[in-house]
Design the sequence.
């Protein structure tokens, strides 16, 4: 029975790959976190269908987008193939997605809950925490974490990575508490060589404490994000056997959980226990085998999207 189902799925995938390429227009807004999510979706689609991806920059501002849409101008579409699917992440992409569908057809999928009515889009890929108190409509696919590309590589159990967020609207950021938790982890794992990286939100006082801690311990090295090579983080995510992430960054948590590393989330005190991000973080931390389930988030989302849209 199991073998028969596996053969059936393999045959179905082979037939899908034999179909004509899926043309996807991808609108981007210049924000790395948003662009990583839409890219992850397209990379996942390529496991099921041949994909021809067209990248387009979203309009400069809301007023210009509305004006362009009114006069029927919009983005330059000269020579672009007709889209089967139009995707984007971030509010700046929403009107362009809608105008593109109006002018050239195709199905639409937005990543993250839009401020525009949900029914205006064929598919909305939204955080589960946006629907805590209500059932999502049929065109909404909910996810516990952000979409991320799965990094399936051999990791080094003797290598660790610590990723720091910083001041935010969800959690109290206590410099001494954060550094104390990091020091506790480092002392408890002398066999692991840790690399720690900050972010643009990490307070200067926290960095001072962290640098002092690094000097006092042999198995940790500090890397300033603005001085690191462009691909430094991706290389670390590929090889680190252990990853510790502060709980204030949803995108870093998602990327870490889509690797083969053992992931731990460094807790912080929330401003409000009904906070949406706190809800997601606690559900991840308390879920049995959460990493196994979450690492397939993008894959499962892609399967549901293709099924709902009949692509």
Sequence:
């Amino acid at each position: 029975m199991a073998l028969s189902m596996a053969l059936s799925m393999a045959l179905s995938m082979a037939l899908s790959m034999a179909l004509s390429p899926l043309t996807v227009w991808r609108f981007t807004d210049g924000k790395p976190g948003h662009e990583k999510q839409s890219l992850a979706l397209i990379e996942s689609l390529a496991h099921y269908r041949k994909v021809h991806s067209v990248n387009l920059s979203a309009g400069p501002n809301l007023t210009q987008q509305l004006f362009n849409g009114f006069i029927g101008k919009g983005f330059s579409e000269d020579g672009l193939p007709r889209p089967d699917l139009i995707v984007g992440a971030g509010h700046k992409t929403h009107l362009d997605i809608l105008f593109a569908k109006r002018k050239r057809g195709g199905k639409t999928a937005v990543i993250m809950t839009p401020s525009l009515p949900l029914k205006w889009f064929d598919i909305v890929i939204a955080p589960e925490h946006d629907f805590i108190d209500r059932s999502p409509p049929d065109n909404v696919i909910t996810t516990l974490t952000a979409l991320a590309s799965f990094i399936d590589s051999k990791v080094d159990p003797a290598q660790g990575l610590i990723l720091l967020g910083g001041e935010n609207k969800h959690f109290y950021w206590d410099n001494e508490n954060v550094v104390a938790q990091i020091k506790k982890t480092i002392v408890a794992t002398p066999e692991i060589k840790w690399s720690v990286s900050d972010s643009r939100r990490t307070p200067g006082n926290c960095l001072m404490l962290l640098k002092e801690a690094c000097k006092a311990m042999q198995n940790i090295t500090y890397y300033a994000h603005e001085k690191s090579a462009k691909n430094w983080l991706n290389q670390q995510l590929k090889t680190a056997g252990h990853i510790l992430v502060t709980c204030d960054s949803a995108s870093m948590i998602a990327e870490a959980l889509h690797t083969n590393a053992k992931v731990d989330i460094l807790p912080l005190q929330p401003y409000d226990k009904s906070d949406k991000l706190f809800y997601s973080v606690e559900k991840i931390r308390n879920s049995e085998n959460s990493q196994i389930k979450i690492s397939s988030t993008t894959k499962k989302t892609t399967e549901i999207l293709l099924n709902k849209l009949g692509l």
